[in-house]
Amino acid sequence: MSKGPGLFSDIGKKAKDLLTKDYVSDQKITVSTYSDTGVAITSTAVKKGGLSTGDVGAQYKFKNTLIDVKVDTEANISTTLIITDIVPSTKTIASFKLPDYSSGKLEVQYLHHHATFTTAVALNQPPTVDLTATVGTPTIAFGAEAGYETASGKFTKYTAGISVTKPDSCASILLGDKGDTIRASYVHNFDQLKMSAAVGEITRRFSTNENTFTVGGSYAVDNLTVVKAKLNNHGKLGTVLQHELIPKSLLTISSEFDTKALDKTPRFGLALALKP
Q: Do the record's keywords include Ion transport (predicted)?
């Protein structure tokens, strides 16, 4: 376990990843290569519906600096620069996208043994500022997040959360959407490698009096194959089969069914990630 409480974005992340990660609905292939100079090159092609898109990216790490550049099929260039420990216990992240000059963002993270803070400034006009703070330990953490619009002087969002983490389980509660939504989740791991786990999540939106309850989990069939499934109270059933074809290269097949309308065509997704 880490020495500090983690970032605010880590609260509820384990449950979110179990219920959303790898549940793809399109066709995607990713090929990665690595050069002797430490440059990682990744090419991605995606087909969604009748549209095909893709991008090519390069990533280079030198000491405490990471540079990531991506170019997509529409000639947009996305660049991310990450520098750690400019000041001890900090991480600085600068990102921008060309030709959209207003998409730039600068974020500074400070991680301490008992607290973490982040400040992110979006370089659009007018600029917006996001602030997060988390206090606690690796076992229990309390956090809050707020978004502030400098032009209007109003808060665009505010969220609060708590998480309790143990070696074999994690529970969290998040109050978001300016107090309109509350989400509680629980994850239980069945093995030390966390390959097999069960998750439950309930979300309530007060303005619409709507509840959504989702259960799911993952199970390691063997060292190479993992299956996942999730089902909510609205009848949406999702499944995933992920198999390691060769070391580090994964084939993922996913599907989604509406159990309350079986006459509807189910959705299928396929992803292939090839790494040397």
A: yes
Number of domains forming the structure of the chain: 1
Instruction: List the structure tokens of 148.
Output: 């502030």
* Cβ-contact 259, 235 below 8 angstroms: yes
CB 48 within 8 A of CB 26: yes
d(CA 198, CA 190): 8
**Who wins on pLDDT, 253 or 103?**
253
3 inside domain: no
In three-state secondary structure terms, 19 is helix
CATH number at residue 68: 2.40.160.10
Q: What is the pLDDT of residues 39-61, one digit of tens each?
A: 999 999 998 877 888 999 999 99
Mean residue pLDDT across the chain: 92
In the three-class reduction of DSSP (H, G, I as helix; E, B as strand; rest coil), residue 74 is classed as coil
> Is 113 within a domain?
yes
The answer to whether the beta carbons of residues 252 and 30 sit under 8 Å apart is: no
Put simply, whether the predicted model's pTM sits higher than 0.85 gets the answer: yes
User: Of 203, 197, 269, whose CA–CA distance to 229 is shortest?
Assistant: 197
Domain residue limits at 186: 8-274
What letter would DSSP give residue 51? E
d(CA 192, CA 168): 7
